[in-house]
Amino acid sequence: MSGNKVVGVTPTSSAPNLISDLEALLKDDIKVKVAGIDVDGVLRGKYMSKEKFLSAASSEGFNFCSVIFGWDMHDTVYPKELLISNRANGYRDLIASIDLATYRRIPWEGNVPFFLVSFLDPDTREPICADPRGVLRQIVVNARNNGWRCMAGCEYEYFQFKENPDSLAAKKFTDLQPLTSGMHGYSLLRTQLNTGYFNDIFDESLKFQVPLEGHHTETGPGVYETALAYTDALRMADNAILFKFLAKSIGIKHGVVPSFMAKPWGNLPGCSGHIHVSLRDANGKSIFAVSDADLKNGRTDAQYDDTKFLSQEGEWFLAGILDGLPDVMPMLVPTINGYKRLVGGEAFWAPNAVTYGYDSRAASVRIISPPSVPPAATRMEIRVPGADMNPYFALSAIFALGLRGIEKKLRLPGPPVSQLTLEDKKAGKVQMLPTSLEAATERMMRPESIAREEAVFGNDFVEHFGGTRQHEVRLWNEAVTSWEVERYLELA
Fold it and tell me: Which residue ranges does the record assign to the GS catalytic domain (predicted)?
């Protein structure tokens, strides 16, 4: 995949198309903010003078230190010399290519102009294999070459605390005060306790060009859920990563720390990052929708009743996801903590097996189709990721596997979740997903992994991204936790 040429995305209506337009757009500004995304989904950026920015925008970009792909989210360098950034060449510069289609202004920072960048190899000017935006863009282009648009929506659940970065450190991240107490999903009362903060998230998102479809309390102390408006997949990933930035920024203003950690409490449900996906043709029609002739009774050639209101391409796409899901788990659940959300399985609506079903929140892939929605809204919801996902990699994994399923015309691996029993799982009739980041990474990196197929992600990506997950596992294995001290210090 790393050797394929990537073309640009279609600019949004507000994106400047020419440098002259850009100069006019920024005529009253003195600085511009730019940012790219690292492997952990952390925004890495800086302010630039307007003059420097315009110079970079009119050329091939500007230099950006490759160390952002050589260290983790806490700036600890990877001990393994990975492909993108290593000590052998002293962390050379990459080319940061400005995507003018991502233009917006940050309303809570004095309306400073903001742009996202993608990273290119300085020698070949090709996208580097581990750049999250570049990886997803290639998948989108591959789909477009077949006449399809990749569409997506993301939903985040997240805890919130009446804390700030200094108090978190002073308390050593223990005994934190939730924003509100109790379990109050969809409550109209709890939002009145912090109405300024709650409404600022919604209102500032609109100003920041990250439109929301829904915003409400979720069950759990201080938990919100926010659904981002459905759009093109690359735009969706941009909006998802920028929504986290927005929520944390608004939180600072109100003395609140929102957390997108997947499982901050052992005895409470975790925080999901559910993803909705579909394909559309050039006319905007859902590729997953059944034909008008099949709309009344469904397809007679569907494998199961649960998929009879999916098109044949939709069924193949679903089969592709299910076929490759165990091999891409680190791209959906990239953290140590994320797998603890899945341990509870269906008890916490966090599926941990290769399962699917019509309108089933107990399945890893929920089919949303007629008769519960009109054909145009036919889609799939992937319920495995937590809120700590990197949306670029998660969406890349889903679409790469689904497109592979269509190409290979794969059949579904088994019956829907409604036809399975607990005994089926115990008997091994249902394939379980990896239960730890270590196991998931080992599976993804094995020689026969679907992730290694060149048409999926290729060896370069798997070696680099897998190496970063091995680093995360090593840090966890070396850590001594409070649970261990409490359990063993006195009595062992």
Answer: 132-492
